[in-house]
Design brief:
The protein is 44% helix and 11% strand. Helix 1 packs across helix 2 and helix 2 crosses helix 3. It is built from 11 helices and 6 strands.
Length: 225
């Protein structure tokens, strides 16, 4: 059996971004929209949320409808001077990932500099062969099909070799349409048909049948010769 490619989302998959990071980013993005589009705070906040729900990323809406420079937006909104205090370490995460056979990559809608900082703070940055950021996707953030196609091209793999672990259902839907295996990292009980497995925490990955199938020793260590 060929090696599988385990593709991990970053925020709210490998760590909890809702507690401190996302609230801070929402403030910074709203402030950016206020300054760039000359909007009041309530209107800017509403526009940010509208683009996030419509495109899966506020940046996509700003680029499409307002010709905002993506690099300027990311640089201004993701400075996060207090990031070390915001990232909550996950006990046993490194050990679990070390036991995972196959290639491991991160696929995030965040900028490269932010993703690398978070992974280093989680002490797992050395376990991934590649970080695929929003810049890497050509600024086609998940759930856009083009972003996934950029990823597959960079990895030189077919979708059937990939397993996506992600908290976003629209991203998982795109992955399933391409032919990937899908694991929803969420406390929600509902499991849509395009989700192959649901876990409440990334640490529950070894409990899934997907893990047991593709991480067994016989798949990698005792192939017939």
């Amino acid at each position: 059996m060929r090696d599988q490619v385990w593709i991990f989302d970053l925020d709210n998959t490998l760590h909890d971004a809702d507690a401190e990071i996302f609230p801070h980013l929402h403030i910074e993005m709203t402030r950016y929209i206020m300054n760039e589009l000359a909007l009041e705070e309530s209107a800017a906040c509403q526009l940010r949320q509208h683009y996030w729900h419509t495109y899966g990323a506020t940046l996509k809406g700003l680029m499409r409808h307002h010709q905002i420079s993506p690099r300027h937006f990311l640089q201004q909104t993701h400075q996060l001077d207090q990031l070390p205090a915001m990232v909550k370490t996950v006990k046993r995460l490194r050990h679990m990932l070390q036991q995972l056979s196959g290639r491991k990559v991160v696929f995030t809608n965040g900028p490269m500099s932010y993703a690398k900082r978070v992974l280093k703070l989680l002490a797992i940055d050395d376990l991934y062969e590649q970080v695929f950021s929003v810049e890497s996707s050509g600024f086609h953030p998940k759930p856009a099909m083009r972003g996934f196609q950029h990823l597959l091209g960079a990895l030189k793999v077919k979708p059937g070799s990939c397993i996506l672990l992600e908290d976003s259902l629209p991203a998982l839907m795109t992955a399933k349409r391409l032919g990937m295996k899908t694991i929803h990292v969420s406390s929600r009980l509902h499991k849509p048909s395009y989700v192959d497995a649901r876990i409440s925490s990334i640490l529950d990955l070894p409990k899934t049948q997907i893990y047991k199938t593709y991480n067994s020793a016989k798949c990698y260590d005792i192939l017939p010769r």
